[in-house]
Design brief:
By secondary structure, the chain is mainly α. The protein has helices spanning 2-13, 22-50, 59-69, 80-85. Helix content is 67%, strand content 0%. It is elongated.
Length: 86
């Protein structure tokens, strides 16, 4: 039984052809994608939550306000109150 456990442990943690362990090789793609996915989720949450409050601002208007601050005139019109709140 001890030999079997040792063989499984050696197989599980042994290096691959590229020198990484199997655990590190399978973890790398998830680690690379983690930050962009979290950033996209944060941006989506911010856009959706801006509309919840005393002044209603839809996601399209939020993008239009941000674009106008960047000097791009595009999207739906918005009020100065919505601009100030955002």
């Amino acid at each position: 039984m001890a030999q079997l456990t040792g063989a499984l442990r050696q197989r599980k943690t042994g290096p691959n052809a590229d020198g990484r362990t199997p655990d590190a090789a399978s973890f790398l793609p998830r680690r690379v994608l983690l930050f962009p996915v979290l950033a996209a989720l944060l941006a989506t949450a911010v856009l959706l939550n801006v509309g919840i409050g005393a002044v209603e601002i839809g996601p399209a208007r939020v993008l239009a306000i941000l674009a106008s601050h960047a000097g791009i005139d595009a999207g739906p019109s918005f009020t100065t109150q919505q601009d100030s709140v955002l």
